[in-house]
Design a protein that fits this description.
The protein has five helices and seven strands. It has a seven-stranded mixed sheet with strand order 5-4-3-2-1-6-7, sandwiched between helices.
């Protein structure tokens, strides 16, 4: 386990964000996840997909953070979806019944398709990475992250 959590945020639509979570969701990082993802829901867009493909470990505080974020999404009039959930975490979601409340998708592309009810007509910053959150603070995305985001924007199937 590490005490580092990274949250990289992409905006394929102005009202939808895909946040890739990297690291462990545990006692040391759950507050960071809860805080930063809540800010996305409250200020930027009410619909959020958490891509959990890079999560190595999740304990009960990480699970609690997910439930809290689901409540925050509901309060914001939006939705929270999970994508690429690791097997161990999926077992935890199933055993606790959380999977009956939180939508779980095989890939981020599938979640994006499900949460996108109509084509976007806005000319906002679609596909952009606005910032990267880490335990050391917020930083601007690197050129590699921007390039990866641009390629996923043009071909949503590559989000997974």
């Amino acid at each position: 386990m590490t005490s580092t959590l990274h949250l990289t945020v992409q905006h394929p639509r102005p009202d939808l964000a895909v946040a890739t979570v990297t690291g462990d969701m545990d006692l040391h990082t759950a507050d960071t996840l809860r805080h930063e993802a809540s800010k996305i829901l409250e200020r930027q867009c009410p619909r959020l997909i958490l891509d959990l493909s890079h999560v190595g470990f999740c304990d009960s505080t990480g699970l609690s953070a997910l439930i809290s974020l689901w409540h925050a999404a509901q309060k914001a009039g939006g939705a929270l979806g999970l994508a690429n959930v690791p097997d161990r975490l999926m077992r935890m979601l199933t055993l606790t019944g959380v999977d009956a409340v939180l939508p779980v998708h095989a890939t981020a592309a599938e979640a994006l398709t499900t949460m996108t009810d109509s084509p976007s007509t806005s000319t906002g910053e679609h596909g952009s990475i606005t910032r990267v959150f880490t335990d050391a603070g917020t930083r601007e995305p690197t050129e590699v992250e921007r390039t990866a985001c641009d390629s996923t924007h043009h071909s949503p199937a590559k989000l997974s």
